[in-house]
Design goal:
With 183 residues, this protein is α+β, with helices and mostly antiparallel strands. The chain has helices at 2-12, 65-75, 135-147, 171-178; strands at residues 21-23, 32-34, 39-42, 57-61, 80-86, 99-106, 109-115, 127-132, 151-152, 157-159, 165-170. A 4-stranded mixed sheet has the order 4-7-6-5, covered by helices on one side. The longest helix has 13 residues, at 135-147.
Length: 183
């Protein structure tokens, strides 16, 4: 129904707090955001609008997206937690204040951690590939993942304690197998 779409849209908007939403019949530009359901969010004057990447990786977690995002931010260069979105009220699977989503970057790649529950697990079908400059960096990243409850796998892969797969790959190895001169 329209009301369910409205509620779902309200939860997923980045810049707005739920009490700021209004129904609006027409397109508005400038200091306001508009979505496809023609709902507007009025931002306070002077508040900056964050740029939204066209492509964001969404990673599903049971309930620990914030822990995972903090670990990635502490472990990988050019990584940080950029926003934490909490439930504005009680809901069937949780309570007011529970972390619903976490926005973060891993090695400069925008990600969204979704605390969606235990229904879906990570698999090797998706992995982050981190290029390392030397053996010390390779060992540091590998050891950080494995020693934090992760597990080793074959061929330079490992899995963190949340089940996300990682390829910690030396640049020299990639250069060797992609070199057109196989001699």
């Amino acid at each position: 129904t329209y009301e369910n779409q409205y509620r779902r849209k309200r939860r997923n908007v980045r810049e707005c707090k739920p009490r700021q939403w209004q129904r609006h019949p027409r397109h508005i530009t400038g200091a306001q955001g508009v979505d496809r359901l023609h709902l507007t969010c009025r931002r306070p004057p002077g508040e900056e609008t964050r740029m939204v990447s066209k492509n964001t990786i969404c990673l599903w977690y049971d309930r620990d997206a914030l822990d995972a995002a903090n670990f990635y931010a502490q472990t990988f260069p050019d990584s940080k937690v950029t926003a934490v979105h909490r439930a504005p009220g009680n809901y069937p699977a949780g309570q007011e204040g529970d972390v619903l989503t976490v926005e973060f970057t891993v090695a400069g790649i925008p990600c969204l951690g979704l605390n969606g529950g235990p229904q879906f697990k990570h698999s090797e079908a998706f992995s982050f590939q981190i290029a390392t400059d030397d053996q010390a960096e390779t060992d540091r990243l590998w050891d950080a993942i494995v020693s934090n409850g992760g597990q080793e796998s074959a061929c330079g892969w490992c899995k963190d304690k949340w089940g996300v797969s990682w390829q910690i790959t030396p640049r020299a190895l990639t250069a060797a197998y992609t070199d057109p001169d196989h001699a």
